[in-house]
Design the sequence.
């Protein structure tokens, strides 16, 4: 027969242990609340920032703060500004500058364009314009002149050649000869180009220039070695022996001829 050991007493949990358990539970609840508050605050801040940048008028484009540079003598600045004005009120962070640049490139006379945001409300539109380098007589029955840039692109027309712009005489429809003439004109220094009154060529190898104010005729030949021909021509014009020459032939620049 086993021994009677008496009633079993329940384990005693101290007051201190209960308090520690309750404290840990409160800490977990407080941490969860702080995490929820932090997430909600982050969502609210992100939403507010997104609204501020993308929807509010705080960073909206003001057409009055659009600056256009590089328009030259051909591009109509008001047409470029009109393109930018189509985006008035659009927040700058949402503005598609690539699309806007493509629209600016459609403006007559614009060769290259770059659009840069100018915070908080403006744009800088930087252009490279198609400047005319030659005036070519129009085909009959028209009586005016077509103004071409260095790439042969028409940038305007005129009844008479603008001051400082040479008139080009080449066979109608001869693109190769016209291209040769334009390549020569493109490489001439500004001071020499301003002195050229007219250019004629029957082929791409027979470019001839006439200078203004009764200056000599320049036999240029092809567009090859143009930098060397410019140097030789400069030296010839400065030489006393060529002072009375009516023709300066630099078509073979290593053996120039004056007569």
Sequence:
């Amino acid at each position: 027969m086993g021994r009677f050991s008496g009633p079993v007493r329940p384990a005693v949990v101290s007051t201190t242990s209960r308090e520690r358990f309750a404290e840990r539970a409160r800490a977990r609840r407080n941490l969860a609340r702080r995490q929820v508050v932090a997430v909600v605050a982050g969502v609210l801040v992100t939403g507010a920032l997104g609204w501020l940048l993308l929807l509010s008028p705080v960073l909206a484009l003001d057409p009055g703060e659009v600056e256009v540079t590089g328009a030259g003598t051909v591009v109509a600045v008001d047409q470029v500004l009109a393109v930018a004005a189509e985006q008035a009120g659009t927040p700058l962070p949402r503005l598609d500058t690539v699309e806007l640049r493509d629209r600016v490139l459609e403006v007559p006379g614009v060769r290259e364009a770059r659009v840069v945001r100018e915070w908080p409300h403006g744009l800088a539109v930087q252009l490279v314009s198609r400047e005319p380098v030659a005036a070519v007589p129009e085909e009959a029955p028209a009586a005016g002149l077509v103004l071409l840039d260095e790439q042969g692109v028409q940038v305007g027309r005129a009844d008479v050649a603008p001051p400082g712009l040479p008139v080009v005489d080449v066979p109608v429809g001869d693109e190769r000869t016209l291209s040769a003439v334009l390549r020569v004109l493109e490489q001439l220094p500004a001071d020499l180009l301003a002195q050229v009154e007219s250019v004629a060529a029957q082929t791409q190898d027979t470019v001839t220039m006439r200078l203004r104010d009764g200056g000599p005729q320049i036999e240029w030949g092809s567009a090859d070695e143009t930098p060397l021909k410019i140097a030789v021509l400069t030296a010839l014009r400065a030489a006393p022996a060529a002072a009375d020459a009516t023709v300066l032939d630099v078509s073979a620049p290593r053996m120039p001829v004056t007569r």
Q: What stands out?
A: The helical segments are 15-54, 77-85, 97-104, 175-187, 190-193, 226-238. The mean pLDDT is 86. The chain is about 35% helix and 20% strand. The CA atoms of residues 135 and 196 lie 12 Å apart.
